[in-house]
Write a structure and sequence with these properties.
Helices cover 53% and strands 0% of the residues. By secondary structure, it is mainly alpha-helical. The chain has two domains: 150 residues, no CATH class; 62 residues, no CATH class. The chain is globular and about 60 Å long. The relative contact order is 0.15.
């Protein structure tokens, strides 16, 4: 994978496989991507427990709950899905599919990163199972095209080169804005963050342009916010 390939890619699955197996991308970022990818499906989910599970997966990514809590929720949700759906003849297929996709981010903690551990067509990283679920016919033209831009927002150029954040840029205003944007999902403040960075002496056009992009969907894990908050893009050795 070259950086040029990364930016011109049109499908998410190859990018996810490369990030997961080769680049060893941080599980936190892959899980945040998976949660963000599922957001448009929330309106289809009839089981409020699945929505709570999706929120729990996001909390797990951010270290707010531990793996035991995730496993407990996964076991309960899996039982609920399997006991309800076969007996719900009136449950639309699209609803059932959406619930299964939204349940996928609860899997994969401590997942092995070698391809040999995934021998079958259904033995795939959880992030790719989310992307694969978006390839359902009814989502192909609406939800699926979001996924590559989401990966670009979360990882940016970082898998290919470092982007330096100078200490003098990390003023109290910049760090407070970055933290507030992340915690409150207030991505409408990204242009304000760009102004604060510029006031602090930031002259990195790539960073400033990303903050000021119009009609762009930012999400938790955004590469600029993570850089400012000192969060790594890949797993630590």
């Amino acid at each position: 994978m070259t950086e040029a390939d990364w930016w011109v890619a049109t499908g998410p699955e190859g990018l996810i496989d490369w990030l997961f197996f080769d680049a060893l991308a941080a599980d936190r970022k892959l899980r945040l991507f998976s949660v963000a990818a599922c957001q448009p499906l929330r309106r289809l989910v009839g089981d409020p427990g699945i929505l709570a599970d999706l929120d729990l997966a996001e909390a797990f990514a951010d270290g707010q709950v531990d793996a035991a809590a995730l496993a407990t929720a996964r076991a309960a949700g899996w039982t609920r899905l399997h006991t309800r759906q076969p007996n719900s003849q009136a449950l639309p297929r699209e609803v059932g599919m959406a619930e299964l996709v939204c349940f996928s981010p609860l899997f994969g903690e401590n997942a092995p990163r070698d391809r040999e551990s995934y021998p079958g067509e259904e033995d795939i990283p959880y992030a790719r199972s989310v992307a694969q679920g978006m390839n359902h016919q009814s989502r192909r033209e609406t939800v699926l095209p979001r996924l590559v831009p989401l990966l670009h927002d979360i990882f940016g150029p970082l898998p290919f080169r470092e982007v330096a954040i100078l200490p003098e840029w990390l003023t109290s205003d910049v760090t407070a804005l970055a933290r507030g944007i992340y915690d409150e999902k207030a991505f409408d403040r990204m242009p304000i963050l760009a102004d604060a960075l510029q006031d602090a002496g930031c002259d990195n056009d790539e960073v400033l342009t990303h903050c000021r992009r119009e009609n762009w969907e930012h999400t938790r894990g955004c590469w600029v916010i993570d850089l400012l908050l000192g969060r790594p893009w890949r797993e630590r050795a």
